[in-house]
Amino acid sequence: LPLVLDALGSPDPSLRGAALAVVPLVPGGSATAAITERLASLDPQGQVGLIGALAERGDRTARGPVEALASSRDEAVRTAAIDALARLGDASTVERLAHAAANERGAARDAARRSLVLLACPGVDAAILAAAARGDPVERTELLRAAAERRSEGAAAALLEAAGDTDERVRLAALEGLATLADPASYGGLVGLAARISAPGEATAVEKALLEVAKGLPDLAARVEPLILAIGRASGVPRVTLLRVLGSSGGERALAAVRADLGHSDEIVRRSALEVLAAWPDDAAASELLNLAGS
């Protein structure tokens, strides 16, 4: 081990490379401690190499010194440290990674986002959801995206709740996460959101989420009936959103609901109903379109 430690700081690249190749193989926690201690005396290039070797070694006792280097002034060192935390971190690392994902740029931000998704340790999913419920809105958006990509237990409920947040960034991230998660259990909640959301960007996001979630509902009635119930209470942008989702589902019940809105008092709703009919997934709307063309 002393030879390895000496070689880690060698100016000879081949010798330094050989030492780094040995680092993952040396057994024992005391070896990890000795190797990790060497980090402070290396130049940035040496730190980057050793951080990678420690990550490959996978001994989480190296987490503290590596996590400290996630605040290094050197971007390459920061990026390597943040990346390594995917293997060396634990639940206590979640907020550090969220801060990096929200505040770093370029490769370091990508590494933080990747580490939040890949971090595998007991309690990580719970820590992500807990942190996503409070604090800085930008950090919360990163945590919500990570929860969706990880398919964390309880993510659908947390995302639905966040979709009603007071911060627009959080709401949009939650809706995007629900589209990624595509959990059929969230369908009813999303229909309820679609019936209330009027902001164009959020309406588009909730529509996308509904379309993705609907793919996991093979029963046509399960897709259509909640939409028909909601559309009876909706107006304006929310009604248009529900019409568009109905149109993607198809079926007689959906067709009747869309056809009824051809006579709606709101011109935007009428126009949207016509556009939905024109894009109907089968030829069931053809006769209605022909009648409209003739009139």
Describe the protein's architecture and organization.
70% of the residues lie in helices and 0% in strands. The protein is mostly helical and 295 residues long. It has helices at 2-8, 13-22, 29-37, 44-57, 63-68, 75-88, 94-103, 106-118, 124-132, 137-150, 155-162, 168-181, 187-194, 200-214, 220-231, 236-249, 252-260, 267-278, 286-294.
Quick recap:
The protein is mainly α and 295 residues long. It has helices at 2-8, 13-22, 29-37, 44-57, 63-68, 75-88, 94-103, 106-118, 124-132, 137-150, 155-162, 168-181, 187-194, 200-214, 220-231, 236-249, 252-260, 267-278, 286-294. The protein is built from 19 helices and no strands.
Regions with pLDDT < 50 over 5+ consecutive residues? none
Distance between the termini: 89 Å
Structural class assignment: mainly alpha
Q: Quick one: overall form?
A: elongated
**Proportion of residues in extended strands:** under 5%
Radius of gyration: 26 Å
Mean pLDDT over the full residue set: 95
Percent of residues in helices comes to over 70%
Return the string of H and E elements. Answer: HHHHHHHHHHHHHHHHHHH
Number of helices: 19
Count of strand segments: 0
What is the makeup of the main sheet?
none
